[in-house]
Each structure stands twice: as C-alpha cells, then as structure tokens.
Amino acid sequence: MADEDLSDLDLSGWRFERCDVRRTRFCSAKLYQTVFRGCRGAFANFSGASFSEGAIQGGDFNNSILRGAQMDSVTLRGCKLSGADLSGARTMGLTMEEVLLVSARLPGFSFRKETLTRIDFSGADLRSCDFRGARFDSSSLRDAALDGSRFEGADLRGADLGGVQLVNAGLFAGAIISRDQATQLLSKLGLKVL
Predict the structure, then answer these.
(1) Dist CA 9 CA 98 (whole Å)
(2) Which residues contact 131 (CB under 8 A, 6 or more apart)?
C-alpha cells in the first residue's frame, strides 16, 4: 500500500493494522474514527484530512505531514512522529502518551491543562504553544523552540529542560520547577544554589 494516493476518499472507520503506508497520500481524506495500529507511515501526507476521533497507536509516522488536518479527539499513543509537520492542525481533546515528536513542527498548539506523559519534544518547533496548567511527566523540552509559548501554572518538574537558555527563562514565569531544574538554569549564569 506504500506510495498510494488515497486523497479525498472516505475511509471513515477503517482500521489499518501493521500496514505499510509510507509516502501514501491521505490529503483531504475523511478519516473519522480511523485507526492506524503498528503501521509504517513515514512521509505519509495527511494534509487537510478530517481525522477526528481517530488514532495512531504504535508505529512509525516519522516525517509525516498533518498540516491543516482536523484532529479533534485524536489519540496518539506509543508512536514515532519525529520530524512530523503538524502546522495549522486543528485539535481539541488531543490525547498523547509516549510519543516521539523530536524536531516536529507544532507551532501554536494548545496543550492547556493536558498531562503530557513520556512525550519527547526535543528540538521541536513549539513556538506560541499554550502549556498553561499542563503537567509534564517524564517528558522532554530539550532544545525546543519555545518563543511566545505560555507556561503559567504548568508543572514542569517532570520535564527535561536541558538546552533552555536563560533568555527564555521568562517564558516559565508562573510555572512550577524542581530545585534541580532551578539549579540547572541558574548554573548557566555562573550561580550556585546551595
């Protein structure tokens, strides 16, 4: 099934189990309640697809394109989306757990009041994201682009903040961090916390 063009088709309710959908085009397809479980989907293109109430469970969707996709109540669990482009994706009630989003593009996403469990945002484009009230659990923001993001009330104690420059430290005003994280941030200024 790799390299197929399934654009504009109604695939609502379909279940793709351990399929090879690499480089497959699902552009503007109707994928309501569609599930991809354990699939290989690197470079798949979901631009403009209606993927509401669907799921990606397990599998490799690295470098996939989800620009402008409708992703309300979508579940992303145990999958790889490194390098994926989710720019302009419309989400509400997105559930993510144990997802690799290394170097992914998610500008303007809202994670407000979400619990982010084992999410690796290392090197991701998270500019202007809303993390207010979010809770990080074994997740990483290492070297992520965070300009314009909001973290008021966020619990960052379970986040790897490595690579965060003190220039960006103001972004974390109102957030909760651990003593170790404070020490790490202040050590970049040459200060020691005792």
Answers:
(1) 30
(2) 111, 112, 149, 150, 151, 154
8 Å CB contact between 42 and 22: yes
Identify the helix (H) or strand (E) that includes residue 187: helix 179-187
**Residue 171, phi then psi, degrees to nearest 5:** -60, -25
CA 131 – CA 87 distance, rounded (Å)? 17
By the 8 A CB rule, do 57 and 80 touch?
no
Q: CA angle, corner 78, sides to 14 and 119, nearest 5?
A: 130
Per the listing, tokens 């690197």 go with 42
SS3 state of residue 112: coil
User: How far, in Å, CA of 19 to CA of 6, rounded?
Assistant: 14
| Residue 180, CA distances (Å) to 48, 72, 123, 127 in order | 42, 36, 22, 25
Contact 102, 122 (CB under 8 A): yes
What single letter denotes the amino acid at residue 84? Answer: A
User: pLDDT tens digit string along 14-58?
Assistant: 999 999 999 999 999 999 999 999 999 999 999 999 999 999 999
